Amino acid sequence: MYAYIGRQAIYNQDMVVAGYELLYRNGASGNNARIVDDDAATRGVLNDALTVFGISELTGGLPCFINFTRNLLMDDFVHLVDPVGIVIEVPGNIYVDEPLIDKLSELRRYGYRLSLDSYSEFNGTLRFDPIISMFDVVRVNINKVNRVRVKDLVRRLRRSRGAELLAERIETEQDFDNAMDLGFTLFQGYFFEKPVCLSKSIPPLAELSYGRLLNALSEPSVDMERCCRIIESDVVLAYLFLRYTQSTTIYRGSMLGEIRQGMAKMGTDELRRWVSMVLLKQTNLQPTEELAKKAYVRGRFIEQLIHFSETELNPGQGFLMGMFSLLDTVTGVSLQNLLRDMRLDTAAKNAILGREENEYSLFLSYAVIYEMDNVRLILPDIGLKLANRERDSMYQRCALEADALFESDNGSGTSYRGYY
After folding, report:
1. CA–CA gap between residue 242 and residue 250 (Å, rounded)
2. Are residues 287 and 178 both part of a single domain?
3. Do residues 243 and 360 share a domain?
4. For 118-169, how does the pLDDT look when each residue is reduced to its tens digit (9 = 90+)?
5. Buried b (16+ CB within 10 A) or exposed e, 103-126
6. How many domains are contained in the chain?
7. Which of 242, 236, 187 has the alpha carbon at shortest distance from 210?
8. Which position has the higher pLDDT, 361 or 148?
9. Is the same domain home to 219 and 183?
10. Does residue 211 lie in a domain region?
11. Does a structural domain hold residue 50?
12. Contact 339, 349 (CB under 8 A)
Protein backbone atom coordinates (compact mmCIF):
# COMPACT_ATOMS: atom_id res chain seq x y z
CA MET A 1 0.00 0.00 0.00
CA TYR A 2 1.36 3.38 -0.99
CA ALA A 3 0.48 7.04 -0.68
CA TYR A 4 1.37 9.37 -3.53
CA ILE A 5 1.90 13.10 -3.63
CA GLY A 6 3.10 15.49 -6.31
CA ARG A 7 5.76 18.10 -5.58
CA GLN A 8 7.18 20.91 -7.69
CA ALA A 9 9.90 23.27 -6.51
CA ILE A 10 9.65 27.06 -6.48
CA TYR A 11 12.94 28.90 -7.09
CA ASN A 12 14.26 32.36 -6.24
CA GLN A 13 16.35 34.72 -8.38
CA ASP A 14 19.53 32.83 -7.52
CA MET A 15 17.93 29.58 -8.78
CA VAL A 16 17.83 28.23 -5.23
CA VAL A 17 14.75 26.34 -4.06
CA ALA A 18 12.58 28.65 -1.95
CA GLY A 19 9.58 26.38 -1.41
CA TYR A 20 7.45 23.60 -2.86
CA GLU A 21 3.95 23.27 -4.23
CA LEU A 22 2.23 20.03 -3.19
CA LEU A 23 -0.15 18.42 -5.67
CA TYR A 24 -2.73 15.64 -5.64
CA ARG A 25 -1.63 12.35 -7.17
CA ASN A 26 -3.23 8.91 -6.99
CA GLY A 27 -0.53 6.68 -8.43
CA ALA A 28 3.12 6.34 -9.34
CA SER A 29 2.42 7.55 -12.88
CA GLY A 30 1.46 10.94 -11.49
CA ASN A 31 -2.06 10.50 -12.82
CA ASN A 32 -4.74 12.51 -11.06
CA ALA A 33 -7.66 11.27 -13.14
CA ARG A 34 -9.57 10.00 -10.10
CA ILE A 35 -10.14 13.47 -8.72
CA VAL A 36 -13.88 13.78 -8.46
CA ASP A 37 -14.01 16.50 -5.86
CA ASP A 38 -11.50 19.32 -5.39
CA ASP A 39 -12.26 19.47 -1.68
CA ALA A 40 -11.39 15.79 -1.31
CA ALA A 41 -8.17 16.22 -3.30
CA THR A 42 -7.02 19.04 -1.00
CA ARG A 43 -7.87 17.02 2.08
CA GLY A 44 -5.94 14.09 0.63
CA VAL A 45 -2.82 16.15 -0.11
CA LEU A 46 -2.78 17.74 3.31
CA ASN A 47 -3.57 14.57 5.22
CA ASP A 48 -0.84 12.55 3.48
CA ALA A 49 1.64 15.41 3.79
CA LEU A 50 1.04 15.58 7.53
CA THR A 51 0.46 11.97 8.53
CA VAL A 52 2.29 9.85 5.95
CA PHE A 53 5.21 11.80 4.52
CA GLY A 54 5.74 14.52 7.12
CA ILE A 55 5.81 18.16 6.04
CA SER A 56 9.44 18.70 7.03
CA GLU A 57 10.53 15.60 5.08
CA LEU A 58 8.69 16.84 1.99
CA THR A 59 9.96 20.40 2.08
CA GLY A 60 13.13 20.37 4.17
CA GLY A 61 11.68 23.14 6.32
CA LEU A 62 10.81 25.37 3.35
CA PRO A 63 7.28 26.74 2.81
CA CYS A 64 4.80 24.36 1.17
CA PHE A 65 2.05 25.77 -1.03
CA ILE A 66 -1.28 23.90 -0.98
CA ASN A 67 -4.36 24.88 -2.97
CA PHE A 68 -7.50 25.32 -0.87
CA THR A 69 -11.01 25.43 -2.27
CA ARG A 70 -13.54 28.00 -1.20
CA ASN A 71 -15.51 25.31 0.65
CA LEU A 72 -12.54 24.34 2.79
CA LEU A 73 -11.57 27.95 3.44
CA MET A 74 -15.08 28.84 4.58
CA ASP A 75 -15.42 25.57 6.49
CA ASP A 76 -12.39 26.42 8.66
CA PHE A 77 -10.58 23.23 7.61
CA VAL A 78 -7.32 25.14 7.47
CA HIS A 79 -7.58 26.00 11.17
CA LEU A 80 -6.74 22.38 11.95
CA VAL A 81 -3.28 22.94 10.43
CA ASP A 82 -0.47 24.81 12.10
CA PRO A 83 0.25 28.00 10.10
CA VAL A 84 4.00 27.45 10.34
CA GLY A 85 5.35 26.26 6.98
CA ILE A 86 1.98 26.29 5.17
CA VAL A 87 1.09 28.76 2.43
CA ILE A 88 -2.60 28.75 1.55
CA GLU A 89 -3.13 29.04 -2.19
CA VAL A 90 -6.39 30.76 -3.07
CA PRO A 91 -7.61 29.73 -6.56
CA GLY A 92 -7.79 32.48 -9.15
CA ASN A 93 -11.33 31.42 -10.11
CA ILE A 94 -12.69 31.63 -6.56
CA TYR A 95 -15.89 33.58 -5.93
CA VAL A 96 -14.96 36.74 -4.05
CA ASP A 97 -17.52 38.25 -1.70
CA GLU A 98 -17.61 39.76 1.78
CA PRO A 99 -17.66 36.39 3.61
CA LEU A 100 -14.52 35.29 1.76
CA ILE A 101 -12.79 38.61 2.41
CA ASP A 102 -13.63 38.33 6.10
CA LYS A 103 -12.28 34.77 6.14
CA LEU A 104 -9.00 35.74 4.47
CA SER A 105 -8.56 38.59 6.95
CA GLU A 106 -9.16 36.16 9.79
CA LEU A 107 -6.59 33.72 8.45
CA ARG A 108 -4.00 36.46 8.27
CA ARG A 109 -4.71 37.37 11.89
CA TYR A 110 -4.03 33.77 12.84
CA GLY A 111 -0.66 33.89 11.12
CA TYR A 112 -1.40 32.06 7.87
CA ARG A 113 0.36 33.18 4.68
CA LEU A 114 -1.78 33.55 1.56
CA SER A 115 -0.89 33.07 -2.09
CA LEU A 116 -3.11 34.04 -5.01
CA ASP A 117 -3.17 31.41 -7.76
CA SER A 118 -3.32 32.83 -10.43
CA TYR A 119 -3.57 36.57 -10.97
CA SER A 120 -4.32 37.93 -14.43
CA GLU A 121 -5.54 41.12 -16.04
CA PHE A 122 -9.01 39.58 -16.17
CA ASN A 123 -9.65 38.30 -12.65
CA GLY A 124 -7.46 40.97 -11.09
CA THR A 125 -9.41 44.00 -12.16
CA LEU A 126 -12.73 42.30 -11.57
CA ARG A 127 -12.10 40.52 -8.31
CA PHE A 128 -8.73 40.74 -6.65
CA ASP A 129 -7.40 44.28 -6.97
CA PRO A 130 -9.46 45.52 -4.00
CA ILE A 131 -8.01 42.80 -1.74
CA ILE A 132 -4.59 42.22 -3.29
CA SER A 133 -2.88 43.55 -0.14
CA MET A 134 -4.02 40.44 1.72
CA PHE A 135 -1.70 38.17 -0.26
CA ASP A 136 1.92 37.42 0.60
CA VAL A 137 2.57 35.82 -2.79
CA VAL A 138 0.87 36.51 -6.12
CA ARG A 139 1.26 34.05 -9.00
CA VAL A 140 1.20 35.23 -12.61
CA ASN A 141 1.37 33.03 -15.69
CA ILE A 142 3.55 35.26 -17.85
CA ASN A 143 2.89 33.14 -20.94
CA LYS A 144 -0.82 33.93 -20.79
CA VAL A 145 -0.50 37.69 -20.60
CA ASN A 146 0.92 40.19 -23.08
CA ARG A 147 4.40 41.39 -21.97
CA VAL A 148 3.30 45.02 -21.86
CA ARG A 149 0.32 44.06 -19.74
CA VAL A 150 2.51 41.89 -17.48
CA LYS A 151 4.72 44.92 -16.86
CA ASP A 152 1.62 46.93 -15.93
CA LEU A 153 0.41 44.13 -13.67
CA VAL A 154 3.76 44.00 -11.89
CA ARG A 155 3.75 47.78 -11.45
CA ARG A 156 0.27 47.74 -9.94
CA LEU A 157 1.05 44.78 -7.72
CA ARG A 158 4.21 46.45 -6.48
CA ARG A 159 2.15 49.43 -5.42
CA SER A 160 0.04 47.23 -3.15
CA ARG A 161 1.87 45.91 -0.10
CA GLY A 162 4.96 44.49 -1.73
CA ALA A 163 3.76 40.90 -2.18
CA GLU A 164 6.33 38.55 -3.64
CA LEU A 165 5.61 37.90 -7.30
CA LEU A 166 5.82 34.33 -8.56
CA ALA A 167 6.15 33.74 -12.29
CA GLU A 168 4.70 30.35 -13.15
CA ARG A 169 4.96 28.22 -16.31
CA ILE A 170 8.62 29.16 -16.81
CA GLU A 171 9.55 26.73 -19.58
CA THR A 172 12.70 28.22 -21.13
CA GLU A 173 15.74 30.25 -20.12
CA GLN A 174 14.26 33.13 -22.09
CA ASP A 175 11.09 32.94 -19.96
CA PHE A 176 13.25 33.09 -16.84
CA ASP A 177 15.24 36.09 -18.08
CA ASN A 178 12.05 37.91 -19.09
CA ALA A 179 10.45 37.29 -15.71
CA MET A 180 13.59 38.52 -13.94
CA ASP A 181 13.56 41.71 -16.05
CA LEU A 182 9.92 42.29 -15.19
CA GLY A 183 10.65 42.18 -11.46
CA PHE A 184 9.53 38.70 -10.41
CA THR A 185 11.36 37.18 -7.44
CA LEU A 186 9.96 33.63 -7.41
CA PHE A 187 9.78 31.21 -10.32
CA GLN A 188 8.24 27.84 -11.13
CA GLY A 189 8.04 25.74 -14.26
CA TYR A 190 9.51 23.01 -16.44
CA PHE A 191 12.66 25.06 -17.05
CA PHE A 192 13.64 24.22 -13.47
CA GLU A 193 11.90 20.89 -13.01
CA LYS A 194 8.71 19.02 -13.78
CA PRO A 195 6.48 17.99 -10.88
CA VAL A 196 7.73 14.75 -9.34
CA CYS A 197 5.50 12.06 -7.91
CA LEU A 198 6.67 10.85 -4.51
CA SER A 199 5.46 7.66 -2.89
CA LYS A 200 5.67 6.18 0.56
CA SER A 201 4.58 2.84 1.94
CA ILE A 202 1.43 2.99 4.05
CA PRO A 203 1.38 1.15 7.38
CA PRO A 204 -1.10 -1.70 7.89
CA LEU A 205 -4.71 -0.72 8.53
CA ALA A 206 -4.30 -1.26 12.27
CA GLU A 207 -1.69 1.53 12.36
CA LEU A 208 -3.77 4.07 10.43
CA SER A 209 -6.07 6.45 12.31
CA TYR A 210 -9.22 4.62 11.17
CA GLY A 211 -7.85 1.25 12.19
CA ARG A 212 -6.55 2.48 15.53
CA LEU A 213 -9.91 4.06 16.26
CA LEU A 214 -11.82 0.91 15.33
CA ASN A 215 -9.51 -1.12 17.54
CA ALA A 216 -10.02 1.28 20.45
CA LEU A 217 -13.79 1.05 19.97
CA SER A 218 -13.59 -2.75 19.98
CA GLU A 219 -12.03 -2.97 23.44
CA PRO A 220 -14.22 -4.50 26.19
CA SER A 221 -13.99 -1.16 28.01
CA VAL A 222 -13.78 1.71 25.55
CA ASP A 223 -11.41 4.53 26.52
CA MET A 224 -13.21 7.52 25.01
CA GLU A 225 -10.35 9.89 25.82
CA ARG A 226 -8.01 7.69 23.79
CA CYS A 227 -10.52 7.71 20.91
CA CYS A 228 -10.67 11.49 21.17
CA ARG A 229 -6.88 11.77 20.89
CA ILE A 230 -6.81 9.47 17.85
CA ILE A 231 -9.35 11.66 16.06
CA GLU A 232 -7.45 14.80 17.02
CA SER A 233 -4.18 13.41 15.66
CA ASP A 234 -5.53 13.09 12.10
CA VAL A 235 -6.39 16.41 10.47
CA VAL A 236 -8.84 15.01 7.92
CA LEU A 237 -10.49 12.60 10.35
CA ALA A 238 -10.94 15.44 12.85
CA TYR A 239 -12.42 17.67 10.16
CA LEU A 240 -14.84 14.99 8.98
CA PHE A 241 -15.88 14.22 12.54
CA LEU A 242 -16.53 17.85 13.43
CA ARG A 243 -18.51 18.36 10.23
CA TYR A 244 -20.53 15.20 10.91
CA THR A 245 -21.35 16.32 14.45
CA GLN A 246 -22.14 19.78 13.08
CA SER A 247 -19.64 21.56 15.26
CA THR A 248 -20.10 25.30 14.96
CA THR A 249 -16.38 26.07 15.06
CA ILE A 250 -13.31 24.25 13.86
CA TYR A 251 -10.20 25.61 15.55
CA ARG A 252 -7.19 23.67 16.70
CA GLY A 253 -7.33 25.38 20.09
CA SER A 254 -10.88 24.22 20.83
CA MET A 255 -10.88 21.00 18.80
CA LEU A 256 -10.43 18.56 21.68
CA GLY A 257 -13.43 19.92 23.55
CA GLU A 258 -15.60 19.84 20.44
CA ILE A 259 -14.59 16.24 19.73
CA ARG A 260 -15.39 15.19 23.31
CA GLN A 261 -18.85 16.76 23.07
CA GLY A 262 -19.51 15.10 19.72
CA MET A 263 -18.44 11.68 20.98
CA ALA A 264 -20.63 12.02 24.06
CA LYS A 265 -23.64 12.66 21.81
CA MET A 266 -22.86 9.78 19.46
CA GLY A 267 -21.94 6.95 21.79
CA THR A 268 -19.66 4.04 20.91
CA ASP A 269 -21.99 2.20 18.52
CA GLU A 270 -22.74 5.19 16.30
CA LEU A 271 -19.08 6.25 16.42
CA ARG A 272 -17.99 2.76 15.32
CA ARG A 273 -20.40 2.83 12.40
CA TRP A 274 -19.34 6.35 11.39
CA VAL A 275 -15.65 5.45 11.45
CA SER A 276 -16.40 2.38 9.35
CA MET A 277 -18.25 4.51 6.80
CA VAL A 278 -15.32 6.93 6.58
CA LEU A 279 -12.90 4.02 6.22
CA LEU A 280 -14.96 2.57 3.37
CA LYS A 281 -15.17 5.90 1.56
CA GLN A 282 -11.57 6.91 2.03
CA THR A 283 -10.12 3.59 0.91
CA ASN A 284 -12.55 2.93 -1.93
CA LEU A 285 -10.86 2.12 -5.25
CA GLN A 286 -14.08 1.51 -7.15
CA PRO A 287 -15.42 4.03 -9.68
CA THR A 288 -18.59 4.39 -7.58
CA GLU A 289 -19.44 3.99 -3.91
CA GLU A 290 -21.94 1.19 -4.42
CA LEU A 291 -19.65 -1.60 -3.23
CA ALA A 292 -18.55 0.46 -0.24
CA LYS A 293 -22.20 1.05 0.60
CA LYS A 294 -22.90 -2.65 0.23
CA ALA A 295 -20.14 -3.44 2.74
CA TYR A 296 -21.69 -1.00 5.21
CA VAL A 297 -25.20 -2.37 4.66
CA ARG A 298 -24.00 -5.96 5.12
CA GLY A 299 -22.34 -5.05 8.40
CA ARG A 300 -25.36 -3.16 9.64
CA PHE A 301 -27.70 -5.97 8.57
CA ILE A 302 -25.66 -8.60 10.43
CA GLU A 303 -25.55 -6.34 13.48
CA GLN A 304 -29.35 -6.16 13.45
CA LEU A 305 -29.73 -9.89 12.76
CA ILE A 306 -27.64 -10.68 15.83
CA HIS A 307 -29.68 -8.23 17.90
CA PHE A 308 -32.94 -9.93 16.92
CA SER A 309 -31.73 -13.53 17.15
CA GLU A 310 -31.26 -16.05 19.93
CA THR A 311 -27.51 -15.67 20.25
CA GLU A 312 -24.88 -14.34 22.62
CA LEU A 313 -22.72 -12.93 19.80
CA ASN A 314 -21.58 -9.30 19.97
CA PRO A 315 -23.61 -7.16 17.50
CA GLY A 316 -20.71 -4.69 17.15
CA GLN A 317 -18.36 -7.49 16.14
CA GLY A 318 -21.00 -8.69 13.69
CA PHE A 319 -21.09 -5.25 12.10
CA LEU A 320 -17.30 -5.21 11.66
CA MET A 321 -17.32 -8.77 10.32
CA GLY A 322 -19.88 -7.88 7.67
CA MET A 323 -18.00 -4.76 6.63
CA PHE A 324 -14.59 -6.44 6.54
CA SER A 325 -15.96 -9.34 4.49
CA LEU A 326 -16.11 -6.98 1.48
CA LEU A 327 -13.27 -4.60 2.34
CA ASP A 328 -10.70 -6.49 0.29
CA THR A 329 -12.74 -5.85 -2.86
CA VAL A 330 -13.26 -2.20 -1.91
CA THR A 331 -9.59 -1.55 -1.17
CA GLY A 332 -7.73 -4.04 -3.35
CA VAL A 333 -5.84 -5.37 -0.31
CA SER A 334 -5.97 -9.00 0.81
CA LEU A 335 -8.15 -9.86 3.79
CA GLN A 336 -5.13 -11.31 5.60
CA ASN A 337 -3.37 -7.95 5.44
CA LEU A 338 -6.47 -5.97 6.30
CA LEU A 339 -7.28 -8.09 9.34
CA ARG A 340 -3.73 -8.19 10.64
CA ASP A 341 -3.61 -6.72 14.15
CA MET A 342 -7.27 -5.62 13.99
CA ARG A 343 -9.14 -6.32 17.22
CA LEU A 344 -11.84 -8.46 15.66
CA ASP A 345 -13.17 -11.51 17.50
CA THR A 346 -11.12 -14.56 16.47
CA ALA A 347 -14.26 -16.46 15.49
CA ALA A 348 -15.41 -13.50 13.36
CA LYS A 349 -11.98 -13.32 11.68
CA ASN A 350 -12.06 -17.05 10.96
CA ALA A 351 -15.57 -16.68 9.52
CA ILE A 352 -14.42 -13.93 7.14
CA LEU A 353 -11.36 -15.90 6.06
CA GLY A 354 -13.35 -19.12 5.68
CA ARG A 355 -11.11 -20.95 8.12
CA GLU A 356 -13.92 -22.49 10.15
CA GLU A 357 -17.67 -22.78 10.37
CA ASN A 358 -18.96 -21.17 13.53
CA GLU A 359 -21.86 -19.06 14.69
CA TYR A 360 -20.42 -15.90 13.13
CA SER A 361 -20.02 -17.64 9.78
CA LEU A 362 -23.68 -18.66 10.03
CA PHE A 363 -24.75 -15.01 10.21
CA LEU A 364 -22.34 -14.05 7.43
CA SER A 365 -23.76 -16.79 5.21
CA TYR A 366 -27.28 -15.62 6.00
CA ALA A 367 -26.46 -12.05 4.90
CA VAL A 368 -24.66 -13.14 1.74
CA ILE A 369 -27.47 -15.48 0.66
CA TYR A 370 -30.12 -12.89 1.49
CA GLU A 371 -28.33 -10.34 -0.73
CA MET A 372 -28.55 -12.75 -3.68
CA ASP A 373 -32.35 -12.46 -3.57
CA ASN A 374 -32.78 -15.99 -4.94
CA VAL A 375 -35.83 -17.84 -3.64
CA ARG A 376 -34.21 -21.18 -4.51
CA LEU A 377 -31.47 -20.62 -1.94
CA ILE A 378 -32.16 -21.67 1.63
CA LEU A 379 -31.25 -19.28 4.41
CA PRO A 380 -29.51 -20.89 7.41
CA ASP A 381 -31.33 -21.03 10.73
CA ILE A 382 -30.03 -18.26 12.98
CA GLY A 383 -32.91 -18.24 15.43
CA LEU A 384 -34.22 -14.97 14.03
CA LYS A 385 -37.10 -13.59 16.10
CA LEU A 386 -38.58 -11.58 13.23
CA ALA A 387 -41.10 -12.38 10.53
CA ASN A 388 -39.83 -12.25 6.96
CA ARG A 389 -41.66 -9.00 6.30
CA GLU A 390 -40.08 -7.39 9.36
CA ARG A 391 -36.65 -8.66 8.32
CA ASP A 392 -37.11 -7.23 4.83
CA SER A 393 -38.09 -3.85 6.28
CA MET A 394 -35.04 -3.97 8.52
CA TYR A 395 -32.74 -4.54 5.55
CA GLN A 396 -34.36 -1.64 3.70
CA ARG A 397 -33.76 0.62 6.69
CA CYS A 398 -30.10 -0.43 6.71
CA ALA A 399 -29.84 0.47 3.02
CA LEU A 400 -31.53 3.84 3.53
CA GLU A 401 -29.23 4.55 6.46
CA ALA A 402 -26.20 3.85 4.27
CA ASP A 403 -27.52 6.13 1.51
CA ALA A 404 -28.06 8.97 3.96
CA LEU A 405 -24.71 8.51 5.66
CA PHE A 406 -22.67 8.25 2.47
CA GLU A 407 -24.40 11.09 0.69
CA SER A 408 -24.62 13.50 3.58
CA ASP A 409 -22.65 16.73 3.14
CA ASN A 410 -21.69 16.31 6.78
CA GLY A 411 -20.20 12.90 6.10
CA SER A 412 -16.81 12.28 4.65
CA GLY A 413 -16.99 13.82 1.19
CA THR A 414 -15.71 12.20 -1.97
CA SER A 415 -13.08 9.52 -1.76
CA TYR A 416 -9.64 10.77 -2.67
CA ARG A 417 -7.13 8.10 -1.78
CA GLY A 418 -5.48 6.00 -4.41
CA TYR A 419 -2.95 3.96 -2.47
CA TYR A 420 -5.07 1.02 -1.36
Report:
1. 7
2. no
3. yes
4. 887 666 556 787 888 899 999 988 877 667 777 877 777 776 666 889 999 9
5. bbeebbeeebbbbbbbbbbebbee
6. 2
7. 236
8. 361
9. no
10. yes
11. yes
12. yes
